[in-house]
Structures are given as structure tokens and as C-alpha cells.
Amino acid sequence: MNKPFNIVGIDGGGTKTLGVLWDEKGNEVKRVEHGFANFSVDILQTKINIEKTIDDLVKDLKGEIYIVMGISGVSNLRNQDEYIKVLNSKYKALTIIETDGLLALYSVVRDSDNPVIMIIGGTGSIVYSLKEGQTNRLGGYGHLLGDEGSAYHLVISAFKTVINNFEANNKLDEFSKELLKLLNVDEVEDLKKLVYGVSKSEVAKHAVHVSALALKGNKKAIKLLENEGINLANQIFNAYKKMKTSEIVKVALRGGFVNKAPFVKEALIKKLENKKMNFEIDQTNLEPIMGAYYLGNKLKGSKKYGRY
Amino acid sequence: MNKPFNIVGIDGGGTKTLGVLWDEKGNEVKRVEHGFANFSVDILQTKINIEKTIDDLVKDLKGEIYIVMGISGVSNLRNQDEYIKVLNSKYKALTIIETDGLLALYSVVRDSDNPVIMIIGGTGSIVYSLKEGQTNRLGGYGHLLGDEGSAYHLVISAFKTVINNFEANNKLDEFSKELLKLLNVDEVEDLKKLVYGVSKSEVAKHAVHVSALALKGNKKAIKLLENEGINLANQIFNAYKKMKTSEIVKVALRGGFVNKAPFVKEALIKKLENKKMNFEIDQTNLEPIMGAYYLGNKLKGSKKYGRY
What we know:
The structure is a homodimer of 308-residue chains. By secondary structure, the first copy, chain A, is an alpha/beta fold. Chain A has twelve helices and ten strands.
């Protein structure tokens, strides 16, 4: 008889570290949250928060332990192997560390081993793909060089639309007037205050006002939102071409913007259909941390430590 | 007989404060330079550098003194009137403070009082116009919302061109390969290092590499540079429409980018000609500080303190 085994999943991002413990049947046994985990922000504090989370989960645990972590900014952690050894020895476990994006990628439910394309359209945007265990990233160039198809990109595009309209005509059209009103500013000049010296996520929050105008039927607002959907579709299609696959591809849409802003998802799907891409939208929308359970099982099954 | 009078001109910007003293015949008597003057950066140090500059110029001076200053970020100086009183009393002078942009605008030589449009295309971009003593500003929304027609905007456009080419085709075209080589980076991913966490002017410096490729005949590089010229022309034309003038407009091109980068100025002029704008390029290209001399004379002539 096999020894019982446990999977510890850790999903670490800019705001929190989520930890989940599963038993070998896949039942969620425990769930905890601690502060942020992002190796680009603070390596020491990230390690502290990760270990606090694991501590809470592995107390009094019997049997084998597999720890699967997806942590933001993991490429900034030098000596990854050493840190893995520290964790393995501290918790008597087998540990792997990946990016939080990869965790999310493995949470996409597939029949057999379909290729997967996952797009995250939130404050920023990024595309991951997975085919036969090979992962790839597209985009992720940040707000100065990319982020097309994100809430931040929408807001900047909307503000530029207002500015261009004003500079060319010396007066405001309906869209611009309504948007300034919702933003609670008097003049086009004031848009600068909403963009400079504030965080990227502060800027991105104004996306709700464009959505509100679109839902009221404003054509410019609708067009701006549809454009972001088309931007995302183009990125997905680039990832699709790279995969060179004839199989049906599972497309997973993640992130608050692509899922909540009106017109974005619809424009995205229409564009992909026009491009005759062979795809299917992932409707399950499991939590990203479920990817840790999937990877943990693969790790266990492979009977070897390292790449699964 | 009138008392002799002297004009002190101060042109303060991010890198230095230039001061020039003219006698009443317009002869340059003295010229000095001190550290930066920018009220958006450091109000106290800016005041210190301004006063050091004036001190050097007014030593042993006889007769009336008119001080005309054009200082960056002057809108951030609260209590302007108080500071003017301080200077007037310290130097027994009549002082006015304007932006450095306005100083430059008044340095454009005109027959009679032609309207003027001045575009500054350097690291960033901005447009000023002057008609019958009325000045106007267009653009100046900064690098996140504008700066079209600047070195910074060119570099970001060039980097985006490389990224889009790479993401769509999974390989680099000639332009991208050559540009990465000149930038001394190995991969598209490395472009992020050249943009994030560095100053806007550091980013803008890479414009020389696009220029180098354009001069070697690379079509994409030429197109990128021409686009910036067209961007500037569109801004000039917006300013022109706003002026509602039938007179010939003096167009002054200022800033290192529009004057030194190849193809920009040519594309700009061609675009304005296509738009049938009634204009003439200012070829004199006087130093911006000459605007202080012009304004000083107007101030003297008007016999009143305040708006000239």
C-alpha cells in the first residue's frame, strides 16, 4: 500500500499569498491566506510570507508532502535550487517553484492534453500557452511597451481619445464630456493628474467609467472596449500560430477586465472566429491555485524530482 | 534725457540657468550660467540658482533694470507675486516671470506682428502659439498621454515595432535585428530593461540608433521618423485652426529632435504643405533667451508693470 500523500499549493501575488492543502483524493482540507509574495518586490518578505503559509498548512501532517508554488517575479529569485533545498529539508517535502502565471495555466481543464492558451486581461495583459508540457509566454512587456487588452490600456486610449478630440476641434464631443463628468474633472488638462504620480492600478480603475458609457450606448466607448478585445484576440492568434497545432485549442480568459468589462469578450471571440482559429473557450474558470493540485499530481506520478 | 536701462534675461530649465545682460541698445554685455531652475523639481534651489545668476549680472549696474525670466515649471510656484516683490526690492528692478516656453516663443523673429506657432520636439513635445499678444499651448500631456513627435515617442514606437514584428512572426526582420544590435541587447525581452526604471531622457537617447538605420536606407526606420514629423505637423495644424487667422504664420521648430533627426523636418513641412496651411518656417533660430530681450523692451515701452 502507498503512503498517503498531500499536496500543498501556494499562489503568491502582489496582494496576497493563498495556500491550499489537498489530500490524495483531491479534497480541499485547508485554506489560508497571508501577505503578498512577489520576488520582484521583496525577496525576504516573500519568503517569510510563503513559509508562514506553508507552516499553517502542514502542521501535524502525515505522509509525503508535495509543495507546488506559483510565485510572482520568480525569475528574480537567484539560487532557486538552494531555496528549494531549504524548503524540502524544513518540510520534508518535494517542492517546485514556478510563476503564478504557469499555475493558472495548469488550472485550465482539458480533455486529454489539448493545447491551452490563457490570456490574462486585468490591470495589465499577458498571454501564456501550453502544449505537450511546453509553456510559452507572449506579451508581458508592461504598460510603456504593451499591455494591449488591459484596463490600463483602455483608460489611456480613452484619455487620448478625449485629448485628440479636444485638440483637433477645440471643443468636447459627447463621449469626452460624459467621461470627464464621470471622472469628476473639469478640464482635459486635469486628465494628467489622473495618470501621473499614481499607480498603474489607480489608472486602470477608471475603466469602469468607459464601461458605464458603453452600457448607455455611447458608440466611442463601445468601440474602445471592442478594440481591447480585438487586441487580445490578436495576441491569442499570435500564440496560436506559434504552437503549430491542428488540435482544438482551449482558450482560457482570466483577469477582471476581460471577464467583467462589457463588449471585450464578445469582440475577442468574434475576431478569433473571423480568423478561423480552431478553439474552444474554457468555461470552467477554476481558481488558478487548482493548477498546483494538477502539477502536484504530475510530480507525484513522475516519481522524479525536477521537471515534470 | 532718459535714464539708461538694462535688461536681464533668465532662461531656466532642467539642466541650467542661463542669464544674459543687455544694454538699452541691445548689445549683449554679459552672460553667465548656473545650475538648473525648475519649480517642479525644487523651489528653494531654483530660487537660489536664479538669484545667483541675477547677482552675477547686476553687479555695479546703473540705471533701470528689467528682469525677464522664463522658468520651467513656473505654475508650481505659488505666491508668484510675492516672489516678484522680493526680487523687485532686492534688485531695484521690474520683474516678470513666465514659462521658459513663452520666452522661446518671443524669440521668433517676425515681420510686424505675424502670428507664431512654435513646436518643441525634443525628449518630449509641446506646441505654443502667439497671436496679438495671446499665447496658447497645445499638447504637453507628457509621455503617457502624448509627446507625439518627440525622441521619446520615436523610441517607444520603434521598440513596439520590434515587439509586434517578433510576436507576430516569431522571428526578427532586418530592422529589428539591426536595431537590437545597435542597442547592444540580445533579445526582444531585453528592450524592457532599456525602458523601465530609467529616466525619460535615457529612453529618448536611443533615437540616434533609429536615425542611423534610416540614414542607411532602412525603410521601417525612415517611416518611423517620418511619422513623428507628421505627428508634429498635425499638432501644428491643430494650433493653426485654433488661431483663425488669414495671415501668414511663422512656424518655429525648436528642440534637438525635430532639428537633428533625419526625415522629421522634411515630413513635417510636406504634410503642412499638403494641408494648404499658410506658413513660413522661421529660419533665424535665435536662442530662446532672446525672447527675454524682446519682452523686456515691450515691458519698458508699456510703461506699466504687469501684463505687457
